[in-house]
Amino acid sequence: MKQPDPNAPPRVALVVDNPFRDLPGMVLVALRLCQQGAECYLVPMNLQEREIGALAPDFVLLNYLRKGNDALAQHLINAGVEVGVLDTEGGVLSSLNSYEQIMAPSANLRDQVSVLCTWGHKLAAHAVEHRWYREDQVAVTGAPRFDYYVEPWRQASLEMSEYAELYRQPLVLLNGSFSVANPLSGSPEQEANFLVRRFDYDREEIDRYQRTQRETLLGMADLANRLAARFPEVTFVYRPHPFEKLRTYEKLFEPLGNLHLIREGTVDGWILRASAVIQRGCSTAIEAGVAGVPALTPAWLPAAEHFESVESVSVQCASYEEMESVVEQIQAGVYAVPPEVRANLEQVITDWFRAIDGTSNERVATAIADSLTTREVPDLHECRLLLYYPTRPHASLKKRIQNHIRYHLRLSPAYSFRQWRPATTGKWEKSDKSFGVEHVARIVESVSSLLEDVFDVGLATERRAYHFGYDQGKAVRIASKTPVATHTPSPHASTVS
After folding, report:
1. pLDDT (0 to 100) of residue 394
2. Residue 57's CB: how many other CB atoms inside 10 A?
3. Do the beta carbons of residue 24 and residue 157 sit within 8 Å?
4. Is the pTM of this model over 0.70?
5. Which is deepest, 98, 153, 234, 374, by most CB within 10 Å?
6. Which residues contact 447 (CB under 8 A, 6 or more apart)?
7. pLDDT at 88
8. Cα 454 from Cα 438, distance rounded (Å)
9. What letter would DSSP give residue 47?
């Protein structure tokens, strides 16, 4: 078994939860790290245990640390792999207590995390005050995916989302946010069972939540139909949450030529082209405000959960008639967002996002690079165990036995005993979680000139980056082609206070 070279560039794995939301931001972080001498691997979340186990990286940036991936984090730490966290939803919370309910319960595990990157000061201060994390662990970085709303990345976002140019302007964007009632995978009943089992939610509360979300989903679809019929000269794009099922909406929309159900690309490319954004309890209200686009809320529809940060930056429309009037004024160019909404936006950004200034990617990369200065060589035995024995409970005893045989016979973890060879179904490539070299290369092409650097992008399998003969990997590797200087440790990206 080939041992890692302690003198080789540090290897950093960045977990990508959903490419429709997270991939461009994680690419920016990867590029910044590569400029500081690291090799980066973008790892699909739903394949993270196999990918990370086979890569045996020096550092893993998890997309959260909650009940459910806490065993994975502990296994990595035990293997000598440093673990950091950048929450994919760390700035829009119904309450700070709601964060505590789902986070990893082990104080010992959290104490071993190298760095927690928070979106804003409010969560960071609360995490330290309540001893969830130590102050020296916390870096207030902001969220890299919001960097694309400001220059120099704003233009890159527009270039990467040229598919949106197919839809004429003016364009109004409606965003769904109903993944509990309309989950991407499985049924609402299965989603409810998962939330109760994994996070100890009250079943009656989850049932109420789903009923409310379902009512609001239907209301948003009806709103889209009515507005599209009322304003035939305006394009209306309805974009469900990345974790929602598209099929649910298909039968709800009228066959109108100016109404489109689309989930292509990240939302920034759509918001930057929109004249208005309509949502109910969705963080895209904040994103719209940053982009200078009015965010409207159909306040007559119920909200399953109250997000003060979202509500305060939205124009509250009490009825359909009021919404129609505001949309009409926007299209006529005579509408102005109320001053109190603009003031609220500034405060929300300060409290929950630190700053949306285009440099969150740098702050995250610096926090990771600082953690790598005292790296140790990962334990390959422990990493191989992770490859064959995922920390998530398996569905059946049969699968556990099969993995046990694969491990001891040194077969591929994808080896099929029915086919007598590694299985290659292509199922993952058809999923909403999949991304490949072409997706990453397109982003790199759009931003690399702004970084004044040239990068190598390819599959980790093609670069022989995996251990243990693993050849089923989907991670995308990025490395700088320019010689880099050794990284000098710096203070954390921001203090908590």
Report:
1. 61
2. 27
3. yes
4. yes
5. 153
6. 27, 28, 31, 153, 156
7. 86
8. 16
9. G
